[in-house]
Amino acid sequence: MGCFREVVQAETAIKIINMLGKEKAVQLLHTYYGGCSIRNLPNGFGYSYSPSSFYRYIHTLTTFIYNQIDRNLHDGRLAHTNIELHFGQEWEADGKVIPISPAFNGETYSRIWKNGRRVLKFLLEDIVDRMTHFCLASEPGGNGTVSYYVHAYAKAKDRAGFPPALSTLMVSSQKRWRQGRA
Amino acid sequence: MSRATAVIVKKKIGDKSQLHTIEGIHKVMDRKLESGIHSKNWLSLLWGVWLHYNFAEPKDFLKGLTPFEAAWGNRLLTSGWEWLLDYSLLAAKKHMSIPAEEKMLTGLDTFLCS
User: Fold this and answer.
1) Considering only CB atoms, which chain B residues are within 8 Å of A24?
2) ipTM exceeding 0.95?
3) Domain boundary assignment for chain B
4) Cβ–Cβ of A134/B71 closer than 8 Å?
5) Which alpha helices (DSSP H) does chain A contain, by range?
6) For residue range A99-123, what is the model confidence (pLDDT) as tens digits?
7) Is A64's CB within 8 Å of B88's CB?
8) Which residues are within 8 A (CB) of A74 and not within 5 positions of it... i.e. 6 or more apart?
């Protein structure tokens, strides 16, 4: 039995799927993550929902699906199915710095003032299997310290079920890496 | 049995990713960053991009397969998001005992667990 919050979230997602219909829910997710902006969705679908409603539906469905996949993908196996995933022995790890809203309150990679405006940058850690191109872990990188790399690496290892034979790691400088910052 | 992992450390230049295999997920991310991340629910955006890259978007360099299909060695019968939705409903039903609509779960047990 899942925790109360997860159960409520799953029930909300099921209500949304019932309301939209499974085909339209799938179409909504595919179109949005395929590159369509949230404001252009109603025009393309002909729905009478507002963009904020669409955003709420997408957020709820995405969280619901990700929680199920994250919980059930361990050791290269997907629980409740007979699916076994075979990953390669060589992984690549790299991060990307992306700009985010100044209103963001969480831990960020850098906070600077540019032309009188506050600019926040967020680090995203990715670990990808070189053979299948499967992204084993895509985690927030926090302030870029090694501990965040270790966290992402542990998650990738848990999902694949084994450590890689070779891992390529991109760091900004050897000096910073030795100091504990990537 | 544990074993050592050889690590190659390369120099990172600027904010962009330099690894070829990671380019794919960043292309998906870039499409979603046109308006920037400006919501308290920003983490779900990252999760959605991860799901779309791995399960839903076919890759040319994988001969039209998604990374999930390449790792599995089989092709999905339905689209990626449809499969994800079906699987999530089934997992929620089994794990949390949620009384999901029977019409949605008809045939899923047979399809996913056979």
Assistant:
1) none
2) no
3) 19-76, 77-114
4) yes
5) 4-20, 22-33, 41-45, 51-72, 146-160, 174-178
6) 777 777 777 777 778 778 777 777 7
7) yes
8) A158, A159, A161
